[in-house]
Amino acid sequence: MSDMKSLDKKVILVTGAGGGIGRSIAIEAARAGAAVVVNDLGATLDGRNESSASAQAVVSEIEKLGGRAVANGDDVSEPEGAKAMVKQATDAFGRLDAVVNNAGILRDCFFHKMTYENFDAVLKVHLYGTFNVSHAAAVVMREQGTGSMIHMTSTSGLVGNFAQANYSSAKLGVAALSKSLALDLQRWNIRSNCIAPFAWSRMTSSIKVDSPEQEERVNRMREMKPEKIAPVALYLASDEAADTTGQIFAVRNNEIFLMSQPRPVRSVHRDEGWDIDSVARHAIPSLKASYIPLDVSADVFSWDPV
Predict the structure, then answer these.
(1) CATH no. for residue 222?
(2) Alpha-carbon distance 254 to 11, whole Å?
(3) What is the tens place of the pLDDT at every residue in 28-48?
(4) What distance in Å separates the CA atoms of residue 85 and residue 151, rounded to the nearest whole number?
């Protein structure tokens, strides 16, 4: 470890940090000088069978590096669980400078086969979990007059994907929530940003392979390591990012993208107003050239990562 550390004296809470992207962020945060609350419910990919062993294993790794960390096994989908993990951060380390809302589950299924339970469960962890942890953290950060919130979104929500109505809804909701947090909390110097990560992890390992094209896509994803996400996340947690808020980044191997956010792309006007016929004959033909294609994420990010 170097003497100059970009996150010295910072305290960071990382949810879903028992493996994959969260684990990498937690370990690299410790390397950069931060004290880390390693949260993980220890659940299986679909959110069942809980155990805190994975969080404790990451804490042990950090301590072997000479870093400071504590394990937390609370549930982000429960408001009281979120409050408990934030309290653990302040009890153990005296403050809370950043949260990384990374915890997630998957229950992929085509929409016409999706149950209410599977829609609800995914929204509860991703969207409600992001709300719960951010809401609890905001109390501490407002008192401090500073803080950073980093949320994991996905191109499944920003662009689209098959068989992920629950996950896509949650992840696009996270992006909208992040913008609201950035607007509402800026007076206390609290920042809020999103990252859409491309990385091979426990979550992406569940992608169904039912064609040569899918197999090729999955093989490309295997090359994208979760460690590649940490530098952007930890930059956003640092003081260097003081003027960055309300943004959406994507990270794919060695590529970093700034993602667009919805804005008008084309308009039509009619002095006398519109009726069904004029909409059909004039408005839609004028607007149709700018329609957004029915793409999925792989169509938009169609080139091999570098």
Answers:
(1) 3.40.50.720
(2) 27
(3) 999 999 999 999 998 667 666
(4) 16
